[in-house]
Every structure is written in structure tokens, then in C-alpha cells.
Amino acid sequence: MTESARPETIAVVVPDSLGGGDPTACEATRGIVAVIEDIAGLSARVVPFPLGYLHHLHTSGEDALAGAGAVVVANARPEHARTVRDLVDVPVLTDQDTTAIALTARVLTALVQHGRAPQAGRVVVAGADTLPVLFPVLLAAGVGDITAWNQEDAVSFPLRRIAVGADVVIDLLGTCSGTENAAMPPEAVVITPEDGRDALVALPGLLRALARVPGARLDVAVRHACALALVMATPPEEQLPQEPDNALADQVAAAAAGAFSQPAHRPHPTSTDHLAE
Which residue ranges does the record annotate as region Disordered (predicted)? Predict the structure, then answer.
């Protein structure tokens, strides 16, 4: 990415099923736009994502993403991000990326608060297949024992049995709510993503970093660096900062920019590595 292509304008790609067909009316979309404009200090442009829309871009040559320095894909599945990356030569972030960063930070703070070093901690991820990017970030953070549990495992391996001895259970399915939560080991901390916070808390800082580092791309090392920045900014007895603000965005941006500047992230004139997830 050249100096002129820095992400001063962010395209926010959202499915039009959100907000009753008007993605700009969706609270989640408004939250993304707010942190981009009010905290990251960048402009945001909402791009609707109707059924087959991205395929239409391929076949018609329409370029709704033209002029964007970076793309944020909301309510993303992994294939959404891959499709967008095929269309653009600028960084693509998803709410899966930022949620994985926040959840890794929450795991690290929970372990520390309970006197456990990450390498000695045992973490169970319930619904691991819904957030595949999380597992490698937890590994990068040094978590010593990670168990992936998915809904199809329930018959042979009930979650409450798999969670025995766990320090943290990350509940991506809502499985541990209500009476099921009572069946979790009493020593285990149950972490459930908070839609209004987890996906947004690292976003403005990441986008600021992308604006500073031409040729930057997002990978596990960058996600890990951002998670550590969130840990350092977390108040005592909390798992995560309450909400993104300018100071937190600066901390996350500095961490991400430092990871971007490592040799693996230095841009090469012919490299397409910045398109990789």
C-alpha cells in the first residue's frame, strides 16, 4: 500500500439483513461507524452487502469499494473476509479479528487475576468453529492448554465434563447460560463475548496503526500485540477496558504498529502478503 492509499476512508461492509434491509439503521453498524469517525479520526462509508452482491462485483466490474484505504467487514463469516480480500488490495478487518483480540485479552486478565500464568492455564473454547481465528491468538499468547469444543461434541463429550479442571471457559454459543452455567466447575471463569464492546474495543487503534504503516497486514502476531495492549489498559478487577477511547486507541495503535514493523511485515514492492488473513 502506498502513502496515498493510507486508510483515510474506511469502507464498512455489512449485510443488508441487518437493520431490516437498511444496514445504516443497524445499531451494530452505527457503533462501528462511531468508533471509526469519533475515535480513530477516519471517515467511514457503509457498503451494503445484499445476497450475491460480492459475486456481482466480480461479474459486473462494479467497484463499490473503490477509494477505501481499508475495509471493515461486519457480522462476518470467514468466507466473507476472503471474498473481500479478493476484491481489494488494502487491509481487510472483520469483527472476528477484533473479537478474537478482545477475548484473548479477557482470558489473560482472568488468568492473572486468579493467580495463573498463561502457560499454566487451561482454557476451553465452546463453539471454537464459530471463531477459528481465536485459537492461534491464544496459542501466541502462551496459553498452555486449549481445548476446542463444538456443538456436535455434546452427545459424546458434554461441555460440563470437558470443562472439568479448566481455568477459563470461553462460551461462544451461549451454552453456559442459566442452569448450564451452574454445571460448570466453580473454579472456572466463564467468558461470553459482549457484542457491544468486544468487537469494537481494539478497532479504532488497529485502524490508526494501518494509517501509519504502509503495506501493513493483519496476522496472529498483530492480533496478539493488540490483545496485550488491552491487558495493559484494563483496570483492576476488570477483564477488559470498558470502552474504546482516544488513549486506548493510541495504546493499541502503538502495539499494532510495532508488530507491523517487524521484518515479516515490512512491505515488498511485489508482495501480496497484505491480502492474507
Answer: 237-277
Q: Per the structure block, which three cell numbers stand in for 117?
A: 500464568
Is residue 260 within 8 Å of residue 213, measured between CB atoms? yes
pLDDT > 60? residue 271: no
- In the chain, the number of structural domains is 2
The arithmetic mean of pLDDT across residues 77-85, rounded, is 74
What integer pLDDT is reported at residue 103 of this predicted model?
98
Q: 84 and 155 in one domain? A: no
Identify the pLDDT of residue 124. Answer: 96
CATH number, domain of 67, equals 3.40.50.10380
What average pLDDT score do residues 139-167 get?
92
Contact criterion met (CB below 8 Å) for 145 and 122: yes
pTM of the shown model: 0.85
Contacts of 159 (CB under 8 A, 6+ apart): 124, 126, 149, 153, 169, 175, 176, 180
Say whether 191 sits in a helix, a strand or coil.
strand
Domain that residue 51 falls in: 3-95+200-275
Neighbours of 20 (CB within 10 A): 9
Q: Let me know whether 113 and 156 are in one domain.
A: yes
Which of 124, 163, 181 is CA-nearest to residue 147? Answer: 124
Least confidently predicted of 121-130, 136-145, 150-159, 212-221 = 212-221
**162, 191, 220: which is the final residue of a domain?**
191
